[in-house]
Amino acid sequence: MSGKTTGYFLRRSLWPCNLLGPLHIRRISVNDSRRCSSSEPTKQGNSVKRSQFFPAAESKHDWVGPPHRLSNLRPIIYHIPENETELEKQLRTLRQETEDWNHAFWTNQNITFNKEKDAFVLSQLKEKGLTERDEKGRKMALNSEEMAVFYKHFLDENCIRHANYNKDWYRRNFTITLLMGRVAFHSIWRTLAERRGWKKGGPTT
């Protein structure tokens, strides 16, 4: 199994389903390689540059950009609608913060993973009396059984960190789901009030 393939399965096995709901998006496609990743998001990690691509000023929808070269995640920028209510703003802000938090985690995760993997491969080659490249200048690699030792060690070493990530991910998405329900309920109430000419006001939920 190649490093890219194994890395993909490592990341997907730790990444819960996205509960953020459907998006009306504008996609921009680019070719981008997939790599895998391990380190908790930190204050420094939160400042990781997301993307050089941004939606046009006249955009009326949520925007999904090309995959980031480090996190492998497509950045999402949520559209700010006109006459946004305070509850809608609260939901949009939390969703955007969650996207940024997720990006920071996987950026740090991937950087650490690749550094540790490269160091492991180099150490194993040295034990065999081999150099990093062969006579033709091609980069040497280990077989799948040898790399399996590293992958297992990596997962065991970062087990608690990954568990904490999953807990935070579910907590955030649960809160987002509740907010989405409240926003939908208030929207229905507002529509009914406008149609029936009720006095201005709304549910207290």
Automatic annotation (TrEMBL):
Per the UniProt record, one Pfam family is COA8
Q: Which UniProt keywords apply?
A: Membrane, Mitochondrion, Mitochondrion inner membrane, Transit peptide
Instruction: Tell me a GO cellular component.
Output: mitochondrial inner membrane
Protein location: Mitochondrion inner membrane
BP GO terms, sorted: intrinsic apoptotic signaling pathway
Q: Which domain of life is it from?
A: Eukaryota
**Key word Mitochondrion present:** yes
Membrane topology term reads: Peripheral membrane protein
Q: Which family does it belong to?
A: Belongs to the COA8 family.
Protein name, entry field:
Cytochrome c oxidase assembly factor 8
Lineage of source species: Eukaryota, Metazoa, Chordata, Craniata, Vertebrata
